[in-house]
Amino acid sequence: MPEDRQIVVVGAGPAGSTAARYAAEAGADVVLIDRRTIIGRPVQCAGYLPTPGELAEMLPDVPDQDELYQVDDSFVLARTYESVMVSPKGRKKTLRFDGMTIDRGEWDPHLVDLAVKAGAEFRPSTQAIGLEQGVLRTDRGDLIPGVVIAADGPHSRIRGSVGLPDPKLIAPALNAPSKMLHSGKVEMHFAAEAPGAYGWVIPTGQGMAHVGLGADPRRKVGDLKANLESFAARVGAELGPVTGGFVPSAGPVKRTVSGNVMLVGDAAGHVMASNGGGVPIALATGRAAGQVASRTLSGSGDLSDYQRRWRAEVGDVLATSARFRWAAGQPIWSPLAMDMAMWAFPKSQMLRALKCQRIFWIY
Ligand SMILES: Cc1cc2nc3c(=O)[nH]c(=O)nc-3n(C[C@H](O)[C@H](O)[C@H](O)COP(=O)(O)OP(=O)(O)OC[C@H]3O[C@@H](n4cnc5c(N)ncnc54)[C@H](O)[C@@H]3O)c2cc1C
Which atom of ligand 1 has the smallest separation from the CA of 271? Predict the structure, then answer.
């Protein structure tokens, strides 16, 4: 027999676990499912987060940030204080920016624990197959949810099964924990190996860093793994096991609510498109979805409030970031043109771009 549940959250990444936590805290009956058996593994993310102080400046419209963005030291692999922008010809500009690298293999299960402590039921090894006429089919039986929160990543199945739009651009990215003598700073390389995106070095501790890159699939990319190997050799890194995934890279989808379904996190394209940072946005939109879902079920709201709420909290930053990504993806950016632009660009504006703030206060 299908099971009646008030809220079913599909996907226990940062967006889904946070949605489940806040919905359960508000008293709703919540079940959180994920196809993975071990949450957070394999790690498919570089784990870089701006510090809470930087996030307060970058996301000024997200309320009550302390409870969302404080990360316990036990999950922090390294702290960084500067980011170096490296042009295709190796020209460097160093920007003051505080960040940390977290261990998502440990942190993602902790977010599930928070949801469970708040009262949500967690079911690992449970894959959603689709939503048909109000029934959520999974490989472990059917559920009849009052509300479905689809937090099932960039290629969301639930999104497709209710006819909500796909993100306009989903870009591939690779990452590998690597041995290297790094400077202790984050490096962003606008390198030929990462057409329309960038390669990164993100310290994870003494003599270790995440080394990775993304690419715009509309450009001539070639073999991304070979590109990563070439990039790693250039920065002096010895690559460990390479993992990867996909990053929605053209801003949020236009509609994130249909019937009793809400999209959150990567499933909704909720990623800062210009730098690929999705975790802080996933936490904010996950909380909004969880709270709106529980209010709707108790009769004091409507699911469409979610769309208004995420737009108010993170809509501006997502739109600005998507504009940067669009501009950076244009074919005019030959290595020489990129090199000259990075030379001419004032550091103050580069820092604004890094923080996804309008540059020269207009673009
Ligand atoms: C290589 C790479 C590096 C990145 N580096 C960074 C970074 O340094 N900093 C940053 O902020 N962001 C980074 N990101 C982006 C970041 O990983 C995502 O934005 C973030 O994980 C989004 O969270 P989410 O909860 O929406 O989705 P996810 O973390 O993708 O979680 C989705 C969950 O849904 C589950 N799922 C999927 N389909 C189903 C199904 N049918 N049934 C049940 N469960 C399902 C999956 O198993 C998964 O656990 C990176 C991405 C990539 C690919």
Answer: 19
Which class for 51: exposed (0-12), middle (13-18), buried (19 or more C-beta within 10 A)?
Answer: middle
Q: Residue 38 carries which side chain, given as an amino acid letter? A: I
Find the Cα–Cα–Cα–Cα dihedral 143, 146, 152, 157, rounded to 10°.
70
Residue 14 Cα to ligand 1 midpoint, Å, equals 8
Helical segments of the chain, H only: 14-25, 52-58, 65-69, 104-118, 157-161, 224-235, 279-297, 304-310, 316-328, 335-344, 347-354
Encode pLDDT of 46-65 as tens digits: 999 999 999 999 999 999 99
pLDDT the model gives residue 244: 94
Q: Is 266 in the pocket of ligand 1 (CB under 6 A)?
A: yes
Q: Residue 123 — pLDDT band, cuts 50, 70, 90?
A: very high
> What are the tokens at 172?
């591939």
The CATH number fitting domain 3-361, selected from 3.30.230.10, 1.20.1110.10, 3.50.50.60, 3.40.50.150: 3.50.50.60
For residue 351, give the 3-state DSSP assignment.
helix
Mutate which of 35, 75, 281 for ligand 1 pocket (most atoms within 8 A of beta carbon):
35
Tens of pLDDT along 325-356? Answer: 998 888 788 889 999 999 999 999 999 999 99
Q: What is the pLDDT of residues 275-308, one digit of tens each?
A: 999 999 999 999 999 999 999 999 999 999 999 9
Cβ-Cβ contacts under 8 Å for 90 (sequence gap 6 or more): none
* Helix H or strand E segment including 161: helix 157-161
CA-based radius of gyration for the chain = 20
The 3-class secondary structure across 296-346, one letter per residue, is HHCCCCCCHHHHHHHHHHHHHHHHHHHHHHHHHCCCCCCHHHHHHHHHHCC
This prediction's pTM:
0.97
